[in-house]
Design the sequence.
């Protein structure tokens, strides 16, 4: 899902049948953002930095490597910018658009999804 930061409008969506990983859905959708577009992503898109230049992914820690203060601050800034998308996803879940069978015309699916509030 691509969301405009200022207007909070859904610009683009991709759909798949059944459960599908975020990154695989992105690859199947063939959405090609412009190279100058900055993408703030979550860890579901790990490896996206190899496909697109302007990607911000959270830093990961492990039991062998703890995050430094600057990496934690980076993750916090990224989470603050990503929370907008999470709020839009929440609105879609409250509207139950994605969780149940859509029974209207298929060609109106994206229009209905973008205009719900």
Sequence:
């Amino acid at each position: 899902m691509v969301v405009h930061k200022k207007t909070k409008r859904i610009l683009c969506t991709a759909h798949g049948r059944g459960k599908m990983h975020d990154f695989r859905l992105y690859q199947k959708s063939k959405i090609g953002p412009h190279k100058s577009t900055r993408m703030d992503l979550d860890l579901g898109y790990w490896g996206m930095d190899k496909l697109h230049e302007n990607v911000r992914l959270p830093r990961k820690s492990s039991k062998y490597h703890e995050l430094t203060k600057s990496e934690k601050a980076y993750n916090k800034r990224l989470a603050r910018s990503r929370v907008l998308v999470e709020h839009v996803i929440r609105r879609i879940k409250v509207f139950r658009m994605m969780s149940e069978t859509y029974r209207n015309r298929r060609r109106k699916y994206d229009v209905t999804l973008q205009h719900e509030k």
Remarks:
- Strands lie at 2-3, 10-12, 39-40, 55-56.
- The mean pLDDT is 77.
